[in-house]
Every structure is written in C-alpha cells, then in structure tokens.
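How a chain folds remains the central question behind the approach discussed here. This step matters because it turns folding into a mapping between discrete strings. The sequence in question and its structure tokens are set out directly beneath this paragraph.
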Amino acid sequence: MALRLRPRRCGAISFTPRFHPDVAPFLSRLLDEFAISERQWKIAELNAFRPPVQEEWLPVAHLSDVSNPERVLESYGDLSEGLVAVLQMDVPSIMKETPEFLTDLDCHFWKTHFPERYTRDVLDGHTIPASGAYQGGMLVRRLGGTWALRQKMEASQVRVGKRIWLPFLRARRYLPSRQSLLDYSLTQFFHEAERYRT
C-alpha cells in the first residue's frame, strides 16, 4: 500500500471502515495487528486501498495437454494435503476447506511475514505450488469448477462459469512479499471467481 496517512496533530478522528468488498474480510482482521492509537489512521489507509484488477484468468481454456490427468490431479491433491499438514496447527480452519479459511491463510501469512521468513527455494518448491493446488481445488469444490490440466503447472486452469482461472499463477504473484499478500490475496481471487460462477 503506497498510501501512508499520519496524523498532523493529536485529536479524536474517527474513520468508518469502507474496505473494498473483495478484501474486506482480510483487511478487517488486519486492524487487530495495530495499536489502538494507530487504528483510525490504518482504517483510513485501508479504506483507500484497492487491489489490482485481476489478470489471472482467460476468456477461453487451453485444451489439456497431459497424458495422465488422474496422476496430475493426484499430485495436486498431495500438494494440498501437504499445505494442510504444515498449517493445521497454526490455521485450524484449513481442515474445513471453506472460503473463510482463505482469509485465515491471508492473515496468517501476513502476520507471520511468511514471504520474508522463508527462502525462495521453500516458496517456489512447496508453498507456491501447494497454495495454487489448494486454491484451484477450492474453485472446483466450492464453485463447481473443472480443471483443464497443463504440463506446465502454472498454466493449469479451472473453469468457473464462463471464465478460466489460473490458481498457480495467482499463487506465484501472491507470495513474493508481504505487500503482495494484500495485492493478490486468495480471498479476493476466490470472491472474484465466485461472481463469475454463472
């Protein structure tokens, strides 16, 4: 977030949260991370925040180019299970596989400075693919999506309604930094796909 508001002088200023609807659940929870003396200014700052327009979708699906889709889907399931195993103690809602969990995950990664705490090898080798597989699975299970599998994992797609979503590309954009957790939250990605379900 480029915008940084600071009080010019002490005084009772009150701001009402008017967060972007796709990220409101996430931003509302972030307020608890700031001292009470900073909250009103953080509300003003977060009210001004607008996530970038989503680009992780296509109007038309590419045909699947994998010879064994069952094996690919099994590997995606293994990635998702790995994410669940790693995070179930810190983020218990992961076991419920609900959209609310995505907000819990956004908050956990932001609060723990996750992208800065781990090496690129860990992020690229596990967390990014696992997050993409989990997110894609959520689009399938919760929104009735269907996979269009590709040999290059990042190009694998999920059709929801008339749009084709790219969950692995979203995960790659999501995890470079703490700021990117806000800009490319999993919460926003899911809510955007949900709007295009029909």
Notes: Residues 1-11 have pLDDT under 50 and may be disordered. The longest helix spans residues 120-143. Residues 75 and 133 are 9 Å apart (CA to CA).
